[in-house]
């Protein structure tokens, strides 16, 4: 019986040893599980935060795109208004200066302008000496 008692004691000691080892392993696994759970919770919080930032960025992008469209429309309106004003300026200029018709080339050099003035002066001087065609019809 002592042999059996010794064997049972040895089995009990081995079971206690095995239980102790398993308890340590279980404790290590629980610690690892707690670390993983904490990491998982941190990842979820970070994911929620990043998704919130993404949604804010998308909202701001949508807002800015809407503002861009609004500004493009305002720019188009301003350009159209500018074109209308430009046309009105041309019309007013043509009304103020009817001798400057659109499409007529302007004289660029002063020499050509001086020649034209001399030709006009000579032509008007000849008419004064000889009289205008209208005056000669009514002279007598």
A few lines on this structure:
This protein is mostly helical and 140 residues long. It has three helices and no strands.
Order of helices and strands: HHH
Tell me how many strands there are.
0
Whole-number mean pLDDT: 81
Radius of gyration: 53 Å
Instruction: Please outline the major beta sheet.
Output: none
How many individual helices?
Answer: 3
User: Low-confidence spans: pLDDT under 50, at least 5 residues?
Assistant: 126-140
Helix amount, in percent? over 70%
Distance between the amino and carboxyl termini = 177 Å
Domains (count): 1
What fraction strand? under 5%
Secondary structure class reads mainly alpha
The outline comes out as rod-shaped
If you had to describe this structure to a student in words, what would you say it looks like?
The protein has 140 residues and is an all-alpha fold. The protein has one domain. It has helices spanning 2-96, 110-130, 133-137. The longest helix has 95 residues, at 2-96. The protein is rod-shaped.
